[in-house]
Design brief:
Elements (H helix, E strand, L loop, with lengths): L6 H6 L2 E3 L10 H11 L8 H7 L5 H11 L6 H17 L2 E8 L2 H4 L5 H13 L7 E9 L4 H11 L8 E5 L11 H9 L3 E6 L6 H11 L4 E4 L7 H9 L3 E4 L1 H7 L5 H9 L4 E3 L4 H4 L3 H11 L4 H13 L5 H15 L2
Parallel strand pairs: 1-2, 2-3, 3-4, 4-5, 5-6, 6-7, 7-8
Bound molecules: hypoxanthine and zinc ion.
Length: about 325
């Protein structure tokens, strides 16, 4: 297997991370440390045992490992520490801008106050500049909980509106279509928040869910969404409306046993603003530059295609036009060196 560029080249390439669940960055060592500090029995006592427990072969089996792990996050300081640990890793991967998902309901449902969660994460992202990263938060609703719970969560979050830039939708898609959350996403829009939703890989009704997300909900971005390649009308629609896709090839390899690289490259070739992201890097043992390198190696991407993926990440980021131009110029400087 060959690629046109090295992993070091990809690490140095300025890029934005747009599909990253902060809870998915909980590395085994931090999990153990927090479990010990907070006196929580997680059933494992060594890093090897924790790593061994990170096993799954589908989205539901992944979520069954992912949610219980969050019990170790108890205090504001824990959420802050998780964020800082991610930013340190992201710096090594050439991330210059990061829009980070967090799942408040996964914590409020076990008694952690919303304020504790948002204050910890927000203090972390504000320190992004210490790592050369501008970072922001995206509040995700859990789609396997009720629409009312999502609405309550948004109501609780709105007093902190200056601490997050948008809303998203994640967790188990089966039986939980985007339309279930139309009202809460409308309220979010009315409050000036950006909107994105997961359209996970090879779901029941994938195409109909993608259609709802872009035509009915009118999101600003789609997370995953690679099944769109099966429907030319929807591909044309996202191109006409400049709606980007945040794909996660290594994550796909775990939950559907296929990176969906062929589909990602096909979309890239059709001019869709696709990006490569890491999703839950502690669980898939791959951070963003590793993800780009894995895709590039397996699907023989050209240097130009790799650079396009990085450019797309700033083009579809929720940042000012001026900041976009600054980051795109940094890519040009790097690639012309
Ligand atoms: N899909 C749905 N829910 C998630 C994901 C994902 O990729 N990662 C973390 N929660
Ligand atoms: Zn995700």
């Amino acid at each position: 297997m060959t690629t046109a560029v090295s992993l070091d080249f990809i690490k140095g390439l300025p890029k934005a991370e747009l599909h990253l669940h902060l809870e998915g960055t909980l590395e085994p060592d931090l999990k153990l440390k927090l479990a010990q500090k907070n006196g929580i029995d997680i059933g494992q006592t060594t890093i090897e045992e924790v790593t061994e427990s990170y096993k799954f072969d589908s989205l539901p089996s992944f979520l069954n490992v992912y949610y219980p792990a969050m019990n170790v996050l108890q205090t504001e300081e824990d959420f802050y520490e998780l964020t800082i640990a991610y930013l340190k890793k992201a710096q090594q991967q050439g991330v210059k801008h990061a829009e980070l998902f967090f799942d408040p309901q996964a914590h409020t449902s076990r008694g952690i106050p919303f304020e504790t969660i948002i204050n910890g994460y927000y203090r972390g992202v504000q320190e992004g500049e210490n790592y050369g990263i501008s970072a922001a938060l995206i509040l995700c609703f859990l789609r396997d909980m009720s629409a009312e719970s999502a609405e309550q969560t948004l109501a609780e979050a709105l007093p902190y509106k200056d601490k997050f830039i948008g809303v998203g939708l994640d967790s188990d898609e089966k039986g939980n279509p985007p339309s279930k959350f139309a009202a809460v996403f409308q309220t979010a829009q009315q409050n000036g928040l950006k909107r994105t939703m997961h359209c996970d890989i090879d779901q029941e009704n994938s195409i109909e869910h993608i259609r709802q997300v872009i035509e009915d909900i009118q999101v600003d971005r789609i997370d995953h969404g690679t099944n769109i390649v099966e429907n030319q009308e929807l591909v044309d629609y996202v191109n006409e409306h400049s709606i980007g896709l945040t794909t996660c090839p290594v994550s796909n390899g775990f939950v559907v046993d296929d990176m969906k690289g062929k589909e990602i490259v096909e979309l890239l070739n059709q001019g869709v603003k696709v990006t490569v992201n890491s999703d839950d890097p502690a669980y898939f043992q791959s951070y963003i530059a590793d993800d780009m390198y894995a895709l590039a190696t397996k699907y023989h991407l050209s240097k130009e295609q790799i650079i396009q993926l990085a450019k797309n990440s700033f083009e579809i980021a929720w940042i000012s036009e001026e900041d976009k131009q600054t980051y795109l110029a940094a890519i040009d400087r790097y690639t012309n060196e």
